Amino acid sequence: MKRISTLLLAVVLLSSSLHAIEPQRQILNAAQVSKLDLSGKWTGKRNQYSADKKTFVESFQYEFELKQEGDIITGTSTIISSNGEYADVQLEGVLIGNKLHFAEKAVKNAIRPDGKLWCFKSGELYFAKVGDNLKLVGATPSYMETYNYPCSGGVTDLVKVDNSANLATLTTMNSSVAGAEPAFNLNVFPNPFVDNANISYNLVSDAKVTTEVFDINGKLLNVLFEGNQKAGDYNLSFSNRNYNTSNGIFIVKMTVNGDVSSRQLVQMK
After folding, report:
1. Which of 25, 50, 93, 179 could make an SS bond with 102 (beta carbons 3.0 to 4.6 A apart)?
2. Are 240 and 267 in contact, with CB atoms under 8 Å apart?
3. Which whole number is the average pLDDT over 32-59?
4. Could you read off the pLDDT of 99-153 as tens digits, one per residue?
5. Is residue 12 part of a domain?
6. What is the mean pLDDT of residues 76-100?
7. Structural domain span for residue 251
8. Pick from 146, 177, 208: which residue ends a domain?
9. 68-72 CB contacts, 8 Å cutoff, 24+ apart
10. Do residue 98 and residue 204 come from a single domain?
11. Sign of the four-CA dihedral 129, 261, 227, 217
12. Share of the chain above pLDDT 70, in %
């Protein structure tokens, strides 16, 4: 028993030591992201959820080849399964605050069984500094390519292959100013939606507020509210009736006293 206890203690101490020296993941803020060169290849994994979203059932090799022009992102995603099935998919996106909002839109090349429905991935990915590496991380929900019905979704973790153009910028970043989200609790529901979606948020103090809706290409579609609001809970309504987007994806951007938060909305067709 003593030998077993000693062995377990050694394993715990080794695990703790490895955890202690593992580089910390630092989520970057909007000002930091604006200084980065995002063009190029990103590679990593996408873990796919089970139907109940409680576990992961499969892990895929996942890659982006991105081209950045200002806040607009275009490129190709490649996903490869363990049995060799793959797809190269055209993607489009926009930088809003400290997030990349992206959506896949058209299969360019693929090997897949005949008649298999494809799920296009989209999401709001954060940029993270891990040591000298630059990462894209976050949830990547997925939707059937014809009607935008939800698939099981997953989580993506990619690293920029050639990060040399960003090394000088990353080394000067102050971790004390980084953060994932402002504290005004922006939520959108239902999501996906059919005709109308609700946008709710909470202000902890009086603020200047602007709430806008964009498409995935960064085109401003509507300003839902612009003005001063007192502290409290608020709700806005968004209807897709006046807008036509090719993929049914909208982005709600909320700016409160200069801080930006955003959420992606998907319309079922």
Report:
1. 93
2. yes
3. 96
4. 999 999 999 999 987 777 779 999 999 999 999 999 999 999 999 987 889 999 9
5. no
6. 95
7. 187-266
8. 177
9. 68/37, 68/38, 68/39, 71/95, 71/96, 71/218, 72/217, 72/218
10. no
11. positive
12. 88
Cβ 59 vs Cβ 46: under 8 Å = yes
Q: Is the pLDDT of residue 13 over 50?
A: no
Same-domain status, 39 and 143: yes
Question: CATH no. for residue 144?
Answer: 2.40.128.120
- Residues 74, 154, single domain; the answer is yes
Q: Count structural domains, the chain.
A: 2
- pLDDT, position 152: 92
Greater confidence (178 vs 201) lies with 201
- Angle at the Cα of 102 (from 100 to 108), degrees rounded to 5? 140
Amino acid at the residue 237: S
Q: Are both 169 and 214 inside the same structural domain? A: no
Backbone phi, then psi, for 13, in 5-degree steps?
-65, -40
Q: Are 231 and 118 contained in the same domain?
A: no
